[in-house]
Structure formats: C-alpha cells, structure tokens
Amino acid sequence: MATDDFQRNRENFCYRHPDRQSFVLCQRCLRTICPECQTPAAVGVVCPECLRDQQKAQSPAQRKAERRWSRPRAFSTGSGQPVVTYSIIGVTAFVFLLTLIPGGAGNAVQEALLYWAPWLYPEFSGRFEPWRLLTVSLVHSGFWHVGLNMLALWMIGRSLEPLLGRWRFLTLYLLSALGGSVAVTLLSFTTPVVGASGAIFGLFGALLVIGRHIGANIAGIAIVLGINLVIGFIPGFNVSWQAHVGGLLVGLLVAFIYTRTRAVRQRGLQIGLLVAVAAGLIALLFVPHLFPAVIGA
C-alpha cells in the first residue's frame, strides 16, 4: 500500500533499523525510532543515543537519587526477543520430529518421555521415573496437537515473556506443566498423557491475572480459555481436562504471586513463594502413597 515516495523517505523508518516502519520520533533529536529503540521518558520516548547522552549528563546526586528511588518491577514493557518461548518451541518441535522416526525408534522416544502416573510409584509399577512430570510437555500425539500447542505458546509467549522476564516466564511454564501432571496423577491415575496443554493453560491463566492487573482488556482471553476448557469435557475429544485444570490453577497462582511481589525488596519473598508452590505440588504426589484407593491405584 505504500507509495514509492513513502518508501524512499527515510524519515518514515527507524534510523537504527532502516527496514522497520515507524511514526514515533525521539523527543530529543526528533529522529524516527521503532518500538525496540524506544525508552519512555517524562514526555514521549527517547532513542538509545539520546538516553546515553542524558545519563552521562546526570550529576552524581541525580544518579544516586535515581538508584534509590527507581523500583525495577517484575513486569517490564521492554521489547526484547522472547528467547525462552522460541527455545521451548524449538526443543518441542525437535522432539516431535524424533518421534516420527520409523522403525520403532520414534515410538521409543515418545514412550521414554510421556507421563503415566504409575511409573512414578515403584510399589505400583516397579519403576520410578520422575522426569516424566515435565518431559510430558515435549511429546505430542500428532501434527495438529503439537501445532496448536506451539501456536498458542508463540502467541502468548511473545506478549507474556517480555512482561515477566525470561526466568520468571520459564518458571511459570515449568510449574504449570508440573501442575498439569499432578492433576492427572490425582484425577486420572491410570491414563497415559502427552502434550504441553497443562503448561499452555498455565500461561492462559497467568495472562488473565496479569492482564487484569495492568488494566488490559481480557475478555477475549477469557472467552478463548473458556472454550478450550469446555472442549476438554466433551465426550469424544481425546483431551486430558485434568492437565488443563491443573495447569490453569497453577498458572493463576504463580501469576498472582508475581503481581504481589513486584518490588526489588520482595524478590526473596517471590522466590520463597515459588519454591513453596513447587513443594506443595510435589507434596500432592504423596497422596497415592498414603491413600491409593482415593485415586484408584
């Protein structure tokens, strides 16, 4: 839709990234900058070079005051690349390709990583393979299964990972995956499961909580989440609703912790609460030991 004159006018493109169209100007030098190059200022935004010049011009007293009163938060509006999201997608896709290897090797990969609760309890199966609690998120039943899960991860991760930061996002993903496996253990003990759905639903839940916290419109997210939850309960759909519910509940809880422990001084509290969540999930795995009749073991 752009005319030749528009394309030739370099003022319509970021001066640091000539291939990126933008209409936002640095308030100091008035050069065009793309979202990656924008840093919020008192009025408008500034480019990286002007930001450096501004910081160099600060007096020692100003720098000390900025360090004292600045409050880094768990959520940032930075536009860094969602490295964790892309890495998870890459590893999951690689494992899926391994499961397609003919001659039985592919099936062996899937069987080594899927989750079947009895394999966590030597008294029931003679095996103890706890890694399956998390590796279940790497194996899928087919192209549609892995494709839809990774599409959801890509769509959510691009927004959520820059808000949380890489380590918080990874922690959220892993705890949600663990929560899905724990729910399957308690609610569907004898059912083998595959897929990252528990982790994905955890991201959905976190997006709801954090979106509401920052004042975003979460109606669309809530509708999509509700539809996906309902599908899990429809007969004929080979879907583990237990993993969905478990991942969702853990995602909601972890996101609530993030929203209530945003200040730097609360970092220790945040880590402690996340460890408590992980410990609580692991503690629930002792239920089959103590009450085997409850879960049908």
Please give the radius of gyration in angstroms. 23 Å
Number of domains: 2
Tell me the CATH superfamily of the largest domain: Rhomboid-like
CATH level-3 fold name of the largest domain: Rhomboid-like fold
CATH architecture of the largest domain: Up-down Bundle
| Whole-number mean pLDDT | 84
- Number of E-state strands: 2
Q: How far apart are the termini?
A: 63 Å
Strand content: under 5%
Unreliable stretches, pLDDT < 50, 5 or more residues? 68-74
The rough form would be described as elongated
Characterize the biggest β-sheet: 2 strands, antiparallel
Class of secondary structure makeup: mainly alpha
Instruction: Determine the number of helices (DSSP H or I, runs of at least 4 residues).
Output: 14
What's the SSE pattern? Answer: HEEHHHHHHHHHHHHH
Share of helix, binned: 55-70%
CATH class of the largest domain: Mainly Alpha
Protein model, in words:
- The protein is mainly α and about 300 residues long.
- The chain has 2 domains: about 5-70, no CATH class; about 85-290, Rhomboid-like fold (Up-down Bundle).
- Helices cover about 60% and strands about 0% of the residues.
- The protein has 14 helices and 2 strands, in the order αββααααααααααααα.
- The chain has helices at about 5-10, 50-55, 60-70, 85-100, 105-115, 120-125, 130-135, 145-165, 165-185, 195-215, 220-235, 240-260, 265-285, 285-290; strands spanning about 40, 45.
- It has a two-stranded antiparallel sheet with strand order 1-2.
- β1 and β2 (about 45) form a beta hairpin.
- α4 packs antiparallel against α8 and α12 packs antiparallel against α13.
- The chain is elongated and about 70 Å long.
- About 30% of the residues are buried.
- Residues about 70-75 have low confidence and may be disordered.
